[in-house]
Write a structure and sequence with these properties.
The chain has two domains: about 200 residues, Vaccinia Virus protein VP39 (Rossmann fold, 3-Layer(aba) Sandwich); about 100 residues, no CATH class. Helices cover about 45% and strands about 15% of the residues. By secondary structure, the protein is of the alpha/beta class. Helix 3 crosses helix 4, helix 7 runs antiparallel to helix 10 and helix 9 packs antiparallel against helix 10. The radius of gyration is 21 Å and the shape is elongated. The chain binds S-adenosylmethionine. S-adenosylmethionine binds next to helix 4.
Length: about 325
């Protein structure tokens, strides 16, 4: 693909794959995938988009889900259309277990799919295609899909509510990790063997109160403070604190990857156009969730437009 605005975007990095492996190793299969905090109204809206798509698919179609993670899309597909033959790829090394009828390919990059040409009638992706090297991924999507293959890709919107909320969370997360933050203070107290002194707890309480004032809507401040307080009262506190810090650093990397992956309007248009040139015309439109003040995501598909409310697409 010639278009530079996609070609230079999103070169996947090893540490991003590790951050996702860590996430899926520690996330239960029944969770809401990579968006556990998604409000019910948004989750329902997303589910309805997928349902509309699944019911329109040919009988027993072979479907490949890119960057499947915890299999949110595949699980929904199976519930709506048990006749579909479902597979998912993801570059994370460990993925949550799914129904045995679903075939999972961990450690598999979207940019290098281990399938013969024309292996799938349907290709899907929910918040994943855009994380990869999009131009290489599109080549692979075109290669492994059949001539009249059907697509539905839900992608992050650069000005969307998911990016905005995650960046706000990241700001609070980084402050808990800052040199005078909760972590460093707790680690210092442990190293000085002062973990149970009143001064240590007073200092931690003061830092917590300041963080809460600065980030009143960020649950992460309370979560981290509660985890630290619990760990400080347990044996092997230092080791556990450092493990918690590593987990937060992984979350930092995932949010940065999300920011980098999210598509601007121009990038969403280019993606749709490039795929259209290779296959059938793709529609691209903004998904809005009722009641939300910012866009939710992009919907890019070559099946007829969603009948759900959307802003004017192309
Ligand atoms: C935001 S999560 C979405 C997971 C799932 N589709 C969902 O909706 O819950 C992004 C997923 O894409 C995977 N991923 C990112 N870049 C990838 C790449 N280049 N190749 C394969 N998988 C990738 C990550 O490991 C992660 O599981």
């Amino acid at each position: 693909m010639k278009n530079q605005s996609l070609a230079v975007k999103n070169i996947p990095l090893k540490h991003e794959a590790n951050a996702w492996s860590h996430y899926w190793r520690t996330t239960p299969a029944a969770s809401r995938g990579c968006l556990p905090d998604l409000p019910g109204v948004a989750a329902n809206h997303l589910q309805e988009i997928w349902r509309q798509f699944f019911v329109s698919l040919p009988r027993s179609a072979r479907l490949l889900d890119l960057g499947t993670g915890g299999g949110a899309v595949l699980t929904e597909a199976q519930a709506v259309r048990p006749d579909l033959q479902l597979s998912g790829v993801d570059y994370a090394a460990v993925l949550p277990k799914l129904d045995t009828a679903i075939t999972l390919y961990p450690e598999t990059r979207i940019e290098q799919l281990p399938f013969a040409d024309g292996s799938f009638e349907v290709i899907t992706s929910q918040f994943a295609l855009e994380y990869g090297n999009v131009s290489a991924a599109i080549q692979e999507v075109s290669r492994v899909s059949t001539f009249e293959g059907k697509y539905l890709f839900i992608c992050h919107h650069a000005d969307g509510v998911i990016v905005r909320d995650n960046l706000a969370r990241l700001k609070a997360l980084r402050e808990t990790l800052s040199p005078a933050g909760l972590f460093s203070t707790a680690v210092l107290a442990l190293r000085r063997r002062k973990k149970s002194t009143p001064e240590t707890w007073q200092r931690l309480a003061r830092i917590f109160a300041t963080l809460q004032r600065k980030h009143p809507d960020q649950s992460i401040v309370k979560e981290v403070a509660a985890d630290i307080a619990r760990i400080m009262a347990e044996p092997d506190s230092l080791e556990k604190l450092l493990a918690l810090r590593r987990a937060l650093e992984m979350e930092d990397q995932r949010i940065m990857a999300l920011k980098k992956a999210a598509l601007t309007e121009n990038q969403a248009r280019v993606l749709a156009e490039v795929l259209s040139a290779k296959q059938q015309a793709l529609h691209w439109e903004v998904v809005h969730v009722p009641g939300a003040d910012a866009p939710f995501a992009w919907r890019i598909s070559n099946l007829s437009r969603s009948s759900l409310p959307a802003s004017p697409g192309r």
